[in-house]
Amino acid sequence: MRTQAAVSHGPDSGFTIEDVEISDPRPDEILVRLTATGVCHTDLATKAVLPAGIPAVFGHEGAGVVEATGAEVTGVQPGDRVVLSYRSCGICAQCAGGHRSYCERFEALNASGRRPDGSAILTGQGGDAWSSFFGQSSFARHAIAVRENVVVVPEGTDLVTAAPMGCGFQTGAGSVVNVLCPDPDSSLVVFGTGGVGMAAIMAGAALGVGTIIAVDLAKQRLDLAAQVGATHTLDGAAEDIVGQIKDLTSGGATHAFDTTGVPAVVRNAALALGTRGSLALVALGAGDVGFDVRDLIGFGKTVRGVIEGDANPHELIPLLLDWHAQGRFPADRIITAFPFEEIGQAVAAMKGDVVKPVLTF
Fold this sequence. Notes:
Quinone Oxidoreductase, Chain A, domain 1; GroES-like_sf; zinc
């Protein structure tokens, strides 16, 4: 079957809209016609490391309508509205223990560029395309997925708003809901107010956290953070940022969340914690941040890395949709829609005022 995809041909190239051949769904696969797909920094970071000359199709926050299912697929049928998320095997020790984002086959299922058996799902002008990204490659009008990463959503769901719940919003909100677990008496500091950080702020507000502090360099984003749940906003460039946070939290935050991966910011996030405070990290940018171990041990602090919000998409995405319907997770406030053909403009806009671009078909 022919479809169109936004193809990357190397780290320094843009995206070009090209005709490609997508394989028919196998017995365990699902063919989805995309309605919307979010653009995530992970798409761009992966694009930046693939060698030039390899045609690649990214995209991992897809949402759309099921067009066909294989004979072995249950619980999904043509016509269903769905959100696509990361893929997991469902049977390894981590999956069986409820931690699908740490699946023992995560890399093979989400970042190998092919099906697990090595076959390609997309074929372009230059031959097989690197695809199956997060089990979907949704920078295309159609995607092949499997039951594990397809979440059926209600008929009336706004798929433009729902699409980023497959990764970015899931990562931010899940890190708060599943890992940090603050209560109304807690204080939560979020460093970086992109899509992931905003989702963490909205989740904190939905849980009724009393003090939610947003830290960023961009005033416009801080203003938006205040509109979606932050009780305080701070300029991340301030020299006394740790002191300001401690003043607002009676000596130190109970919880902190970093989305930047910047070593100095991560260190400040740890220093801003109070006794027995917890910090969750989701950005891969920093390899060595130089924590003060005496500070961590002396005050019983916890630092924890998180993938995909430690979330089972089949549980968290329905929760976020329920919160959105109740007005408690105003995700639409941080989304800017772009036609699929304007993917280049969407990517450029991420460096400016656009918090979360979503491509629409």
